[in-house]
Amino acid sequence: MNSLTNQVYPVIWHNNAVSLIDQTRLPREYTFVEISRSDDMAQAIKTMIVRGAPAIGVAAAYGMYLGAREIRTDDRDYFLQELEKVAEKLRATRPTAVNLFWAISRIMKAAYETIGTVEEIKNTLFQTAKTINAEDLQTCYAIGDNGLKVLPASPEKLTILTHCNAGALATAGYGTALGVVRSAWREGRLSRVFADETRPRLQGAKLTAWECVQEGIPVTVITDSMGAHCMKQGLIDAVVVGADRIAANGDAANKIGTYSLALVAKAHNIPFFVAAPLSTVDFSIGDGSQIPIEERNPMEIYQVGDTILTPRGVEFYNPAFDVTPAELITAIITEIDAFAPGELRKYREKQVV
Ligand code: MRU
Q1: Which of 113, 139, 165 is the last residue of a domain?
Q2: pLDDT tens readout for residues 27-38
């Protein structure tokens, strides 16, 4: 049961097009961008108008339908060939979040498996995209509630530190890490969220803080280098983050800075949780060394708004994600249950048999 008044849905099907909350303009402006072509959806994903692994997956699924709608033919084979090109463009937008590839594969599978006219295939793709969207919302509710089983049992209300934004904005709604936060808040188990600002794009300061304010959840924004100090001072009871891709052994890629947070949490004996849907687990890769890490434009480090931060002549390195080794993760909270990282593979084996 989840009754929240200020629900945020970053991807909505409306008026025969997709409405995306423009996350590049928050928290100053709460505006929507209307997308009716697949190329525009690819651009929106690349430029992070929509971001966060599950939300990217939902957006890409609708992007596939928009692309399908643009293909003018009655020839099934030609249609499928053209649809593969749409998939290729969308896949090329961001490399790390596996939900993008997962959602596109699910749409392609639906296309190949539909026996019927091109119009019927298009209709199936639309229904599949809507299903992916609806399922992700339910998944987030389940993740939030499963998080309650593993958060420290304490007579005191908890403080949770999170990194980046794994909230409603990053999913179909409600969030993964912030889903756990929301559920804990609803149950009266949370006193405050600490949000890392998350350089260079500031998803924590801008987006996580905005979501908490919408919901009336007390939030303290700290810079990325303050986590260790806050933990040492006893200000943090648990760390909960999202993930962009989890390898079969439980290694988890998430926003740059997550790995150092996990190391510091381990040093202070503070539980470190990764909250993510099973669609974020890439069982095709054995460990985190095989996760592709996106490198973004150096301008993100060089400049904040109009302010230039560094002298001329320096070099930049801007990896957008890092990989937290499984041994630093207390549990991975999914929609099915919370697993020790090593149990993911066993769960998968049981599913496949
Ligand atoms: O670059 P972003 O903003 O897309 O990165 C987002 C994150 O790293 C999130 O923590 C992750 O995608 C999980 S979202 C539920």
Answers
A1: 139
A2: 999 999 999 999
